[in-house]
Amino acid sequence: MSGFGACQGWNPPNNLYAPTISYLSSNYSPAGSTTLVAIFGTNFKLYSTITFGTYTPTMIFISSAQIDFYLPSSASYGNYPVQVFNDTTPSNAVEYTVYASPGLWYQNPNYSDIITNSNTDGLIVNGPITIKSAINSTGYTNIGDLIFDDATNSQTISWPNYTSATITSDSTGILITGNLTVTNTIYGTVSPPPSDYRIKDIIEPLNSSYTVDNLKPIKYYNKKSGKEEIGFIAHEVQEVFPCLVTGVKDGPDIQTLNYMGLIGVLTKEIQNLKAEMVELKNQINK
Question: Last residue of a domain, which of 67, 98, 129?
Fold first, then answer.
């Protein structure tokens, strides 16, 4: 029977028949809104089949070293084992991770300097992002920018492990939640704090209990700024005016003091002193 093919019931050795996957590669097609996965290896056949987790996608035979398939659109986020079968003989399993189905990040073909994201899952980068400068069409150097282009909705830079540390921008401006530590000097134009009556409620004049009598002004050396300063100790002011101090003594965060809030107390004290002087003058002149 030799020369006429294999005898009925004969199976070839597995090392000659089994397919092998070396690695996977994928490419997202914006036009088709789908991802094409390429399997590279050896011993692929026209009659081979593919499993992608529990899916059996349609195979596209390229050669005995490559077969392709389209990522199932219903595949959710997660890891999927990929295998090739020659009849019932399986290959090794290689894991494929779906980060955001079906979209991926891709280079915009019309604008080579723009990268567009086709999904809502965002970009995950394990490592630093470097923004470099470039020469524009007028010959000037453009320094790379990190731009938030939606001023109507809140856009946030956050550190997930620190729930109090976020930078949020919207149409009203930029809000930093958490402590901001700057080693060197910050230069900029300072806008006066808002004081419009429309943002204030339950307005009451200061009574005689709002006095500077119990405040303890001190001179001290600031270890953070490296300078001699004059001011107060936050937790001591908190005992007199708790609304002017944030945090607690010896808490996890450094306490802060609203020095601007003391202006109202000082103004009230000056008014009281002037009234007393007028009264004394009137008594003397009698």
Answer: 98
For residue 131, being part of any structural domain is answered with no
For the stretch 90-119, pLDDT in tens is 999 999 988 654 445 555 555 555 566 655
Domain that includes residue 249, residue range? 203-286
Spans in the chain with pLDDT lower than 50: 1-6, 101-103
147-160 in b/e form (b: 16+ CB < 10 A) is eeeeeeeeeeeeee
| Residue 5 located in a structural domain | no
Query: Considering only CA atoms, which of 29, 37, 33, 34 is closest in space to residue 109?
Result: 29
Report yes or no on 89 lying in a domain. yes
- The number of domains in the chain is 2
Return phi, psi of residue 82, to 5°: -110, 130
- For tokens 């195979």, name the residue: 59
Calpha distance 234→255 (Å, rounded): 6
